[in-house]
Design a protein that fits this description.
Helix content: 55-70%
Distance between the termini: 82 Å
Radius of gyration: 27 Å
Shape: globular
Oligomer: single chain
Order of helices and strands: HHHHEEHHHHHHHHHHHEEH
Strand order of the largest sheet: 1-2
Number of strands: 4
Length: 462
C-alpha cells in the first residue's frame, strides 16, 4: 500500500504541475521544494569540481601534444587521475605561513577568490524545463532580472582576494602582482560590460533565461559578432591566463600574488582560476551561442533536440569548445607586455565598444520607427566608412606612429647590474653600488666576463 500511495502522490504532483514547458522564464524560479534547490546546488558544486579536474587533464594533454611530448599518463588510465593526485598532494603539503604576513587577511584572501567563482555559476542555464521526481523545474540554479550583472559583481569580488593576497604577503613580488591584477580587471571589465550592452538591447532583458529564449531563431554571435569578439578578448584578460597572465608573471614576479602561498591556500587560488575559466566559457555560450539550444542543422531536422535532457549535451559541447580555445591560446601565444595590455584595453577595446553600442542602438531605434532594413544597413555602412576614413586621415597626418623621444647620446645613461645600458632606456639603478638591499656588495669592474660578474653579484647578495 505504501508503494501504491507513493506512486499516486507522484502522479498527482505531475498532474498538478501540468505539462512541462520547453522554455523556462524568470517567473519559473522560486517555486521548487527545498530538497530540489539543495540538489541543484550540490550538482553545480560537483560539476564545477569535476570540470576543474578534467580541464587540468585536458590542458596538460593538449599542450603536451602541441609541444610534442606525452603529458600526464601515470595516474590512472591515460593520466585521468592526475588532477586528483595533485589535489591530494596539495592537501597533504605543509602549510607555510611567513612570519611577517597579516595572518587574518592572508587566510581570507584565497576564500574571497574561490567563493565568488562558485556563486557566479548559479545563474547559468544548463537546459530547459524538465521533470525531476514529478516536479517540473528548470535546469538552472536560479535566475535574476539582472543575472548577468551578478557575474560581473562576483568577478570584481574575486579580484579583492588577489589584491589582498598580494598586500597581506608583505612581499614586493606579491604586491606588484596584486596591483597588476586590480589594474587589469578595471581595464578589461569595463570593456566586457560594454560588450554585454548590445546583447541586452537585442534580448530586452538581463536575465539569462530571457537571453537564451531570445536566441531561439538566430544566435547573437551572428547578429552581434563585434560584441562577441570583444568579449572573447576581455574574457582572456579577466581569467589572468596567458597571454594576459601579468598578475602572476613567473618570469619577473616569481609567482605574483600567490608567491607566499602553499598547500590548500594555493589550491584555492588554483581552483578559482579554473572555475572562472568554466564560468566565462559558460557565459559566452549563454550570451552569444544560444545557450543550451542545439545548432541550426540539428534543431532544423530534429524537433526534439531542444526538449528534455538533450540540451545539456549541446551546452556541454559549446562549453568545452571554449575551454579548448583557452587551452589552445595558452599553448600558442606568448605573454604580452604590460603596456600592450593596457593600451589594448583602454585605447582599442573601450572606444570600439562604445562606437558599436551607438551603432546598435541607432539601428534598433530606426527599426522601431519602421525604417526598412536595407536603408538601415546602407546608413550604417556609410557611417562606418566615414569613421574609418577619418581614422586613416588622422593616422596619416600624425605620421602613423607615436612620437618617440630621441635620447641624447652625450647624456650619461644609467647602467644595469652588469654595467651595460638599461634595456629600452628605462632607468635601472647600478648594481655595483657600495650597498644593495642593506648589504655590502663588491664593486663590479665594467670589463669583466659575464660569468665573473654574475659570481661577484651572487656572492655579494648572499
Amino acid at each position: 500500500m505504501s508503494a501504491l500511495a507513493r506512486t499516486a502522490e507522484l502522479t498527482q504532483a505531475a498532474v498538478l504541475a501540468g505539462p512541462a514547458p520547453s522554455d523556462p522564464t524568470l517567473s519559473s524560479f522560486g517555486r521548487d521544494p527545498w530538497w530540489l534547490i539543495g540538489g541543484k546546488v550540490l550538482v553545480i558544486f560537483v560539476f564545477l569540481v569535476l570540470t576543474v579536474l578534467m580541464s587540468m587533464w585536458v590542458e596538460r594533454r593538449v599542450i603536451g601534444r602541441m609541444q610534442l611530448r606525452v603529458g600526464p599518463n601515470r595516474c590512472g588510465p591515460f593520466g585521468l587521475l592526475q588532477g586528483l593526485a595533485d589535489g591530494i598532494k596539495l592537501a597533504l603539503k605543509e602549510d607555510i605561513v611567513p612570519r611577517q604576513v597579516d595572518k587574518v587577511v592572508f587566510v581570507l584572501a584565497p576564500i574571497m577568490s574561490a567563493v565568488p567563482a562558485f556563486i557566479s555559476f548559479a545563474i547559468i542555464p544548463f537546459g530547459p524545463t524538465v521533470s525531476v521526481f514529478g516536479h517540473h523545474t528548470a535546469l538552472q540554479g536560479t535566475d535574476l532580472p539582472v543575472a548577468v550583472l551578478l557575474v560581473l559583481a562576483m568577478s570584481s569580488m574575486g579580484v579583492y582576494g588577489i589584491v589582498l593576497a598580494g598586500w597581506s604577503s608583505m612581499s614586493p613580488y606579491s604586491l606588484l602582482g596584486g596591483l597588476r591584477s586590480s589594474a587589469q580587471v578595471i581595464s578589461y571589465e569595463i570593456a566586457m560590460g560594454l560588450s554585454f550592452v548590445a546583447v541586452f538591447l537585442f534580448a530586452g532583458t538581463m536575465s539569462t533565461t530571457g537571453i537564451v529564449n531570445a536566441q531561439a531563431d538566430k544566435w547573437f554571435v551572428v547578429l552581434l559578432l563585434p560584441s562577441f569578439l570583444v568579449y572573447v578578448i576581455t574574457m582572456m584578460g579577466e581569467s589572468n591566463r596567458i597571454p594576459f597572465d601579468l598578475p602572476e608573471g613567473e618570469g619577473e614576479l616569481v609567482g605574483g600574488f600567490h608567491t607566499e602561498y602553499s598547500s590548500l591556500k594555493f589550491a584555492m587560488f588554483f581552483l578559482a582560476e579554473y572555475i572562472n575559466l568554466a564560468t566565462l566559457s559558460a557565459l559566452a555560450t549563454t550570451l552569444f551561442l544560444g545557450g543550451w539550444r542545439a545548432p541550426a542543422p540539428i534543431s532544423t531536422f530534429w524537433e526534439g533536440a531542444n526538449h528534455g535532457w538533450w540540451p545539456v549535451l549541446w551546452f556541454m559541447v559549446k562549453l568545452w569548445a571554449f575551454i579548448f580555445f583557452f587551452i589552445w591560446l595558452r599553448g600558442s601565444l606568448p605573454r604580452v607586455r604590460y603596456d600592450q595590455l593596457m593600451k589594448l584595453g583602454w585605447k582599442v577595446l573601450m572606444p570600439f565598444s562604445l562606437g558599436w553600442i551607438l551603432l546598435v542602438a541607432t539601428i534598433r531605434a530606426l527599426r522601431n520607427e519602421g525604417l526598412a532594413m536595407n536603408r538601415i544597413m546602407l546608413y550604417s555602412a556609410i557611417a562606418i566608412g566615414v569613421v574609418l576614413l577619418v581614422t586613416v586621415l588622422w593616422e596619416t597626418l600624425r605620421g602613423g606612429k607615436d612620437k618617440k623621444i630621441v635620447p641624447d647620446p652625450a647624456q650619461d645613461r644609467p647602467t644595469d647590474a652588469v654595467g651595460g645600458s638599461s634595456a629600452g632606456g628605462f632607468p635601472v639603478p647600478p648594481m655595483d653600488a657600495p650597498h644593495y638591499h642593506g648589504g655590502p656588495v663588491a664593486a663590479v669592474p665594467r670589463r669583466q666576463t659575464e660569468a665573473s660578474r654574475k659570481e661577484v653579484v651572487q656572492n655579494g647578495i648572499h
